[in-house]
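Re: duplicated header lines in exported structure tokens

Our pipeline writes sequence and tokens for each protein into one text file. With two proteins the header for the second block appears twice in some exports. Here is an export where it did not happen, for reference. First protein block:
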Amino acid sequence: MPFGRRSGWREVGRDVFVRNYTTFDENVGLVLGDGAALLVDTRSSHVQGAEVLRHVREVTPLRPTIVVNTHGHFDHCYGNAVMLPCEIWGHEACALELRTNGEERRRDVLASVPAAMAREIEAVEIVPPDHEVRDHRTIRVGGRPVELRHLGRGHTDGDLVIHVPDAHVLFAGDLVEEGSPPSFGDAFPLDWPATATHVAALASGPIVPGHGKVVDRAYAERQAAELAAVAAQARAAHAQGIPEERAASLLALPPAFATDAIRRAYAQLDGAI
């Protein structure tokens, strides 16, 4: 079946697929092994998660027995509940955040999304990962090795990348962004450049970002350099005592992104996070 033409799935490596959804321009991954399937991220609600499961059947009759959350933001993990029973993997900080601050985060999301989506999110059962990764873990998908790696703080403190070495495919979550600037809402701007550099170094083929088009190592390297420039400018502005609003205006980012980047970088430099 030529998936790239007859369905919304694109095969980016042998038996490794990505599907992009127009809601948030978000990507979901699917890795097939011998009699087993792994799903990368579950979208924003139980309704959207159920849609993903229907779409999986376009590729395989297998129901995913393993889910990996790239991080704990709602648009990547609020569909977890409909995937059960299965293993749900995530970084330990992602699991902790969803367990301890899940309802507070839900309230924040409800205030920022359209009414129709808010009604869905109100009904979501927040299910944190029940299999946790600290630094690195290799799991098997029907005998096929898949590496789960935490390469450092960046978009959040709990980002995982999913590496399928035999297909040379890397799912980077929101550590890599395409089609929009990196989002700094609860990021670690001073750490992100090094983490992004590690992401690029690990890649030997397609990189699937959390949102947007599939990219490559050169793209990830350019974005790492851009993140390094943001961090350097934030450090310099903070050292000079430049107020946050003024410092944000000096960044080559849209205003809302720049404001978040400086706010979080200054908080790091002040020891507040």
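Second protein block, exported in the same file:
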Amino acid sequence: MSDSNSSFISNQVSNPPPGQVSGSTDASQRQQSYNNANRDEAILSIRSLYKSYYDASILQDINLDINSGDFLVLVGPSGCGKSTLLSCIGGLTDVTSGEIYCKGKDISQLDPAKRDIAMVFQSYALFPNMTVAQNIGFGLEVRKVPAAKRTKKIQQVAEILHLEPLLDRTPAQLSGGQRQRVAMGRALVRDPTLFLFDEPLSNLDAKLRLTMRTEIKHLHQRLGGTMVYVTHDQVEAMTLASKIVVLNQGVIQQFGTPDEVYKRPANTFVAEFMGSPAMNLMQAKVLVEAGDLKIQIQREDEPPIIFSEPAATDALRAFANRSVIVGLRPESISDLPARDPQRSHSVDCRIDYLEGIGSDVYATLKIAGGDVVSRLHGDSSVRAGDRQQLHFDLSNISYFDPSSQLRI
């Protein structure tokens, strides 16, 4: 098994570059405090966390370390346990067993109000009879923060989130994106140790989601805060995260940077879940000819695809004369030449059908008994039923064990 599998159910998170300092004086002070923290010391540590309801297991043996300044995204299909994990961190759901540490302190049994954690929910949960300023400052008022200090912090947060002209309005007078910014402001005004976001953009339309996603990314870069974000949208995960946790059926499938998760998926589930279109998975056989390793992929009514694998690892060689699963992203099967001619293999293919999206054309072909998607140039003139010479870029090829589904 390759070194990349060390990221499979890994327990260590590295840190992203420090955020840019801008905005209010308060934001700059927060940025400095995060940067001065011991970045080798985890802000949040989760150890052997389990959660079950009666006989139903929701989370199984969750182990994570989240460092200062991380933007960690929990991603997975509906029902995988990502929102439950976030709720356990925030204290809204009791854990069945295991520990949660915040800055070295066990908070597993603490009330939510005592955890120094702020949460932004899928629903805005704003008070309809309060103004924007009152909604943002409500938590400070409950904590008996003096009025002068409360007003100052509300102004500072409003500046960061571009809400200054809206402070006197009520939620009914705001758009969906503005309401979400108010909900974020209510969390931000507290200066918490950790921010939790539970699918905050799922109620917004596609264009507004993109705008708000950009704003959240900029907010993280400016403040350098530590954030844990739940989404089922893999595009959100890839664009926002410094680290990604992929969950399925309550089990961590992979933990790594967006680049690691995309290019070197730990198993076939991650390969198919992360990426749109998904990674192509093709049944193949490992052959040995005169000491050289070759990969053979069968095709119906057409000659098989056979290519050499000069970069074969010992783990792959152990599969000699056995079946493997070959994984290639759609962009690695293209009508454009591969960047590295030494790792390119040209194949004559019949195009079954096409899907144009403007900048690119996705072409589907039949290989190894299934549909394989390739990404063609947007100006491609190929039509369904045509034959096309496609270049297989093998520089980012993945191999998986058919039995365990794990990366080889």
